[in-house]
Amino acid sequence: MSRAVRQPINRAALRRVWGLLYRHLALYRGSWPRLVELCYWPILQMSIWGFTASFLSARMHGVAGVSAGLLLAGVLLWEVALRSQMGVAVSFLEEIWSRNLGHVFVSPLRPAELVAALLGVAMARMLIGVGAAAVLAWFLYAFNILAMGPVLVFFFANLVLMGWWVALAVVSLILRHGAGAEALAWSVLFGLTPLSAVFYPVSVLPGWLQPVALALPSAHVFEGMRAALLHHFFAWGELAWAGGLNLVWMAGAIWLFARQFQAARVRGALLSIGE
Amino acid sequence: MEAIRAEGLTKRYGSTLAVDAISFTVPAGATVGLLGGNGAGKTTTIAMLLGLLVPTAGRIHILGHDMARDRFAALAVMNFSSPYVALPARLTVAENLRVYGHLYDVPRLETRIRDLAAELDLTALLRRRAGELSAGQKTRVALAKALINRPRLLLLDEPTASLDPDMGDFVRSWLERYRAASGATMLLASHNMAEVERLCDLVLMMKQGRIVDRESPAALIARYGRQDLEEVFLDIARNRRAALAPAAAETPAP
Question: What is the ipTM metric for this complex?
């Protein structure tokens, strides 16, 4: 295909993605409860864990500052994954709740463009929510997550990716099971918290559970985070594992989504998915 | 040219045969009514034409595009309206039209929205939320959404359901004017037989997943020896009376 023919198609694809992004922008602009909800949980989490860290710091002399830093960094970074996952899943559910999916799926919007728009909305939601929590951490506990340095970008990117592939799997389950799978949008990644070694090293887990934890990118990210905070060491190996695992899991999630989307078209579920 | 060509279209859900190997064509520029009782297979047929549902067997060509291989090219030049598929209630009318204008890559979108709003008497409603509108207003907004991309093929599922006679007539008149001005093809499913008589060049009568008769409304009424299409519908639905003469060959020109 010539460049001249290809360019307008790409522009149209970008415009379709923008169309769905605009739909969510308009939704949030006109709904203050939704805006509050974006920040509510990250701020609540940061408040609870921040005060807990302050309390422990007062009693654990010597390692107090480092422990509090580990705790707060863990809370903030785990929120990156949680908010990324919920952002995608809830944005998809918004289409179901508004009974709008029929119109969306008979438009020229490709499934990949739908996913791109959902990821865009999720990124914006996550930045607002986690940003508010990070500001609170700096204001209340004098904890600056940016002080971790450039390595933070790698932690951040890997946790966003993990949130996205978990969300794609959740959306696939919603396509398969309809409204009955909605609760997974809020609960799936919370369930992986113990295995993600957010607040403790993987070695704390029972031996038989450690390989399961190490199959998750998040466990490697948080091992890397501890290496950076405790030893000022850039654990490239952990980050490489996290990145590689994310690619594998993402490929699996894309395959699952494509399969369930096609299955929904075969079953006629795209019109009745909210029921 | 044919706007729609369906060949051997079949949809089976487990042991239930919803659509049974139907074949039909819709000439470009025609308005065709898809009629039948509840469960006759109309909605399933429309869902397959829209690409929402994958046929168990058969092929669909929309405006020359094979829906199995090239459905997005077809979807870009068609559109759909149904009272049973909502627009986001918390978005204003203008925001909803903007969303779909972007999805259909409509050029000069704000002008298009302004023109459609003027034509469909929506200008005063553009800043109102879709969820706050009356049934008649929602129908006109849904119609504006369905026309945002100037579709060459318009699929309408019960376009005047739940509208009062005045608003129903407004919508029917508007569809007539749109068709005359644009030459668009329309396929509409409706339970309003007077509406079908007024708008349609051809009727496809469905029953138990099959097309059991097809003809222009006037020709069907004559063949069944009835006064109106509603009586023909009841004859077919209740197996009351067979046609007095066999159907003419195929689709008449619009």
Answer: 0.88
